[in-house]
Amino acid sequence: HVQLVESGGGLVQPGGSLRLSCGASGSIYGDACVGWLRQAPGKEREGVAFARNNGQTTYADSVAGRFTVSKVNEKNTLYLRMNSLKVEDTAMYYCAADVSRYCSGGHAPHFYQYWGQGTQVTVS
């Protein structure tokens, strides 16, 4: 069973930056497809940034060029660097992992079996 724990959220002004971290209970980041998703009040959960197990990264159009996903396998930690934050980036951010044998790195929530508890990001 995999446990994911996010940290790093907070309140930031528009144009500011934050870095989110997601620690895993085991050494999963080398084999799994992992990523960040977010959910704003009254909206569906949406994919933000993803790292496949081959190292490829993909981003939602709304964050491309501003957000960067990275991972340090030796530390079992996934990161999301968020720059030029906008009010519309305000949401609960979740890290997630797909540990299936042929993970796709897709952006939809249903691809992911393990989730963190979320960390709140407020841009105001």
| Rg for CA atoms | 13 Å
Oligomer: single chain
Biggest sheet details: 7 strands, mixed
What percent of residues adopt helix (DSSP H or I)? Answer: under 10%
What class do helices, strands and sheet pairing give?
mainly beta
Q: Spans with pLDDT under 50 lasting ≥5 residues?
A: none
Q: How far apart are the termini?
A: 37 Å
* Secondary-structure element string: EEEEEEEEEEE
Average of per-residue pLDDT values = 94
- Assess the beta-strand content as a share of residues: over 45%
Annotation field: number of helices: 0
- The backbone outline, from C-alpha atoms, is globular
Tell me how many strands there are.
11
Account of the protein in words:
This protein is an all-beta fold and about 120 residues long. Helix content is about 0%, strand content about 45%. The chain has no helices and 11 strands. Strands 2, 4, 5, 6, 9, 10 and 11 form a 7-stranded mixed beta sheet that branches. Strand 5 (about 45-50) and strand 6 form a beta hairpin. The termini are far apart. The mean pLDDT is about 95.
